[in-house]
Amino acid sequence: MRYIIFIICKSKPPEAKSASGFLEVMRSVEMPGPPINSSRMFFVADPVKGQGVHAFMYRVSETDLEPDDGESFRIKDTALFPGFKMASELRFFRWKKAVLLTADVLALAALARIKVVLG
Q1: pLDDT one-digit tens code per residue, 7-36
Q2: Which of 25, 35, 72, 80 can pair with 91 through a Cys bridge, CB separation 3.0 to 4.6 Å?
Q3: Are 84 and 20 in contact (CB under 8 A)?
Q4: How far is Cα 41 from Cα 45, in angstroms, rounded to an integer?
Q5: How does DSSP assign 13-66, residue by residue?
Q6: What are the backbone dihedrals phi and psi of residue 113, each rounded to the nearest 5 degrees, phi first?
């Protein structure tokens, strides 16, 4: 079983700076595929030019997690996320549960990409 954190950012690293601080301290990898556009009806973004929202991922080993509430998992050691002050607040869900929990279309697109990348 694999667990992934996915990160949404508007530009590619190293120029990117996320509010959470992830891209500054993590070795995240951009997922394949064009940048995401949440609504082509309202937002003009040319994916050929790299415009849109880029999705990144970072792998976390199952051995670094512990059960939290029966449906989610948390990090055993927050030192795995140096510089991220809210690491103790992170929760990890199995992908099917995550799909049902989020109302964010960008997160759903990133979850779909994670499933394609990992199989």
Answers
A1: 555 555 444 445 445 555 566 778 888 888
A2: 72
A3: yes
A4: 10
A5: TTT---TTSHHHHS--EEPSSPPB-S-TTT----GGGT-SBEEEEEEE-GGGEE
A6: -65, -40
Q: What is residue 5's predicted lDDT score, i.e. its pLDDT? A: 64
Can you read off the two tokens belonging to residue 73?
A: 């998992």
Of the candidates 87, 27, 92, the one whose C-alpha atom is nearest the C-alpha of residue 58 is 27
In the DSSP assignment, the letter for residue 7 is E
Please answer whether residues 108 and 95 qualify as being in contact, where contact means their C-beta atoms are separated by less than 8 angstroms.
no
- For every residue of 73-102, which 3-state class applies, written as one string? EEECCHHHCCCCCCHHHCCEECHHHHHHHC
- Which pair of tokens denotes residue 101? 């929990």
Using an 8 Å Cβ cutoff, are 58 and 4 in contact? Answer: yes
